Amino acid sequence: MAVPPARRGRRGRRAALAAAALAVVLPMLSGTVPADAAPGDSGRMDKLNKQIAQLDKEYGGDLAQLKDAQWAAKQAIKKADSLRGQLEASRTLAARLAANQYMSGGQDPGITIVAAGDPSELLNTMSLASHVAQNQSARVQQITKLVADQEKARQLALAKITDLQKNLTDLKSRKAQVKKLIKKYKPESPSVGMGSVTPRMMHVKQVIDSEFGPFPTIGCYRGGADAQDHATGTACDFMESSGGVSPTAARNANGDQVANYAIAHASELGIKYIIWQQRIYDMRSPGWRGMSDRGGITANHFDHVHISVF
């Protein structure tokens, strides 16, 4: 049975559409997407975690400086792994769509309905091919961005792991000094009648409050997964504001004085470390050091001075 001229014309236009679309799309799917970035070094991180756990026992507990670096490294690895998963999923989808498009004669699945009609009544061949090309270009751009983001996240993760290793090495080199501090300040038990803090922490609280109080509040004992020294009664937070807002200039100055006083009198008071304004000063590894951004005024210690004792 002879094919009507009109139908032959539509088939010809579809064939032209397929050829034009593939001519534009295929170069995009070949050679323009960078190679995969290598996965995060979780094995190296696991080894560091074991060393930190051991050092935490030997060095009097709550190595906040190390744990901050550890947290930052874990977050960076988590982000890199998440982006790698998105990248793999996007590439799989792009490959599947490309295969389907090839098998369907070059038509993008998203415009099959449009192509099924008479192209002359909807879009001409080149505009339809341009639509296909734009869709594929967007997919390629998405994948390319994911590759760049994943590589950036991986490099950040490696940098954080390197920082963690440096902090660990530094603390290990101070083992003799740290053991002297631990021997000097023997561990104490929290006292229920003293708000569940140790006698040493209670003394520090009273001294700081006497010298620089009154404070909006002073928070000491608390439980929870992130309580750290607070859970053992060996830490207090001296608030310079309340409600999660930034302190005034005067209260910031007071916080500076509290932190400086705690450092200057750390030896006589048995202070282990101070955290203030996203920085930590650990007597086991002296000197102010920056901490990771935890995403808030209180979490980053901009509204309170944290003091931990041995």
UniProtKB/TrEMBL annotation:
The parts of the chain that form a coiled coil are: 147-181
Q: Where is the ARB-07466-like C-terminal domain?
A: 195-302
The organism encoding this protein is Actinomadura harenae
Please give the Pfam families that the UniProt record associates with this protein.
VldE
Keywords assigned: Coiled coil, Signal
Task: Look up the domain of life of the source.
Answer: Bacteria
The region annotated as signal peptide is 1-37
Q: Which InterPro entries match?
A: ARB_07466-like_C (IPR058593)
Q: What protein name applies here?
A: ARB-07466-like C-terminal domain-containing protein
